[in-house]
Design brief:
Elements (H helix, E strand, L loop, with lengths): L23 E7 L9 H12 L7 E7 L4 E7 L2 H4 L2 H5 L5 E7 L14 E5 L2 E11 L2 H10 L11 H8 L1 H4 L4 H6 L4 E9 L2 E6 L8 E4 L5 E4 L3 H6 L2 E5 L4 E6 L2 E6 L9 E2 H7 L5 E2 L2 E2 H15 L7 E4 L5 H11 L7 E3 L12 H11 E3 L1 H4 L3 E6 L6 H12 L4 E6 L27 H8 L3 E4 L2 H8 L6 E2 L1 H4 L14 H10 L1
């Protein structure tokens, strides 16, 4: 199957951000030598990506190798929309890597779908990336000034150009040398004809784990829930600053950075992004969120409330913990309509209110004339939260106590979460009472930073808390945004 040439023509118009967005999910498998099922690697990768669909819903892609060459397909849409059975059957190879994407650098268009499959003088390579490179803009300018031509507007393509550069390619370990030049957050999976290389950034901001199928094949994935989907056993986390190689010999490992560096695990993975079934840095995500809910009930009780209810779906575990700790009834009074697709921020608050009415069904019997505690994982811009609170008021809620299982988000994320800039974050420049007034609730309380980190088994020394504290573990020395590359191209076209 030929790989279509991905050429970025005139960049599209640049949309505003949403409340919060998933990042990306990666997957890789090596060693499915099954002559009677030549598409086995692609099939397993499909299942691994499907299990990680929550991490990215804009595009999906898979690349495979037969030991000599690579072939791949990536397109806009969900995993089961992009990969129909007939297409998967054509993807012959004993190894594969895959990707589900939500864009954090570069807009949502097919040229940015991953894995990026490129050919250079050392051969073909496919790259799948979860995270964000904060020095990508500077590196890209340097390469463009030297005549390099980029086909995408994603930060990941910079890595391909670095691998192809003669002074990097001549090193004894070109990949390790290139990784030492990257700054920011990255969990990367590379597919070469003879191997898979999986690597995490030196601070370990984004997760990635190693697993093994009952038949012996090794797999890597952003989250362990992907292993559950394919009946693989968790082996271990890939360490920060480590490169793990999967090939016909099995698994080997080498380091490109010191193992003694202090870590910076993204605490928001436990708050919102990861699947509740996943084990993240040694702790089950559901249990962590339930503990966050318990701590929230201790810090901000609502003893006069009639019941506790989650904001679907990410507030459910924390709401359960809050209800258990406070001995209040747990009610599922807010039911999501799963057939309404993901929606972008609409131009007016009235439009947003109407869309929330379509996406959420309120069970009025459980709401009317009652004092309720609503538990959610976070508030970013606050626009859709306001719509949700208004929907509960319309259903007859007498009082609404909003409880959030993380601290107020006051700062943008540069490491792979598409938070709006701080001018658009509702908590920036406002007190807690002012935020409560803006959201039209009777009370509002956030979980403390200490309570959140303690529940996750983290500390300020080994976790990234930049979106709450503004303390960036990897210094951001250049102001840029999700659409920086497109804006530069728009100027070229104007």
């Amino acid at each position: 199957m030929p790989v279509p040439l991905r050429v970025l023509e005139r960049p599209p118009s640049l949309p505003d951000g949403e409340e919060k967005k998933e990042k990306c999910g990666v997957f890789g498998i090596w060693g499915t030598h099954q002559p009677d099922q030549p598409d086995a690697a692609a099939q397993v990768t499909f299942a691994g990506l499907y299990a990680q669909q929550h991490r990215g819903q804009e595009s999906a892609g898979i690349a495979v190798t037969d030991g000599h060459d690579l072939m791949g397909h990536a397109a806009m849409g969900l995993v089961n929309q992009v990969f129909k059975p007939d297409l998967l059957k054509q993807m012959h190879g004993h190894a594969a890597v895959g990707h589900v994407r939500y864009s954090t650098t570069g807009s949502s268009q097919v040229c940015n779908a991953q894995p990026l499959l490129q050919r250079f003088h050392l051969g073909p390579v496919a790259i799948a990336h979860n995270g964000n490179l904060i020095n990508a803009s500077r590196l890209r300018r340097e390469y463009e000034e030297e005549g390099a031509i980029f086909q995408t507007s994603t930060d990941t393509e910079v890595i391909v150009h670095m691998l192809a550069r003669p002074r990097h390619a001549a090193k004894a370990d070109p990949l390790a040398h290139v990784l030492q030049h990257l700054q920011g957050a990255f969990s990367l999976v590379f597919l070469f004809p003879d191997r898979i290389e999986a690597a995490r950034d030196p601070l370990g901001i984004r997760p990635m784990s190693l697993g093994q199928l009952p038949t012996g094949e090794y797999v890597v994935a952003s989250e362990t829930c992907a292993f559950d989907a394919i009946n693989a056993a968790f082996v271990r986390d890939i360490e920060p600053g480590e490169i793990v190689t999967l090939d016909d010999r099995g698994v080997t490992s080498r380091r490109y950075d010191s193992p003694d560096r202090v870590r910076a695990r993204c605490a928001f993975e436990h708050v919102y992004f990861a699947n509740p079934a996943s084990v993240l840095w040694g702790r089950n995500v559901h249990r962590v969120r339930e503990t966050m809910g318990r701590r929230l009930a201790q810090e901000a009780p609502a003893p006069e409330a009639d019941c506790v209810m989650p904001m679907p779906d990410s507030g459910r575990s924390a709401a359960l913990g809050f209800a258990k700790e406070s001995t209040l009834p747990f009610e599922e009074a807010i039911v999501p309509n799963r057939f309404v697709g993901r929606t972008f921020i609409l131009p007016s608050q009235g439009d947003r209110d109407r869309m929330v009415s379509l996406k959420l069904n309120i069970i009025g019997e459980l709401i009317k004339d009652r004092e309720i505690v609503v538990v959610d994982d976070s508030i970013v811009r606050g626009t859709t939260t306001l719509s949700k609170m208004r929907a509960l008021r319309r259903a007859g809620a007498r009082k609404i106590h909003l409880r959030i299982s993380c601290p107020p988000i006051r700062h943008p994320c540069y490491y792979g979460i598409d938070f709006a800039d701080n001018k658009q974050l509702i908590a920036t420049g406002k007190t807690q009472d002012e935020i409560a007034d803006a959201l039209e609730v009777d009370s509002l309380h956030y979980l403390s930073l200490e309570g959140m980190l303690d529940a996750a088994g983290l500390s300020e020394q080994n976790a990234c808390t930049a979106c709450w504290t503004g303390e960036y573990r990897v210094p951001v020395d250049e102001t840029y945004g999700k659409f920086s590359f497109e804006r530069r191209q728009l100027k070229m076209f104007s």
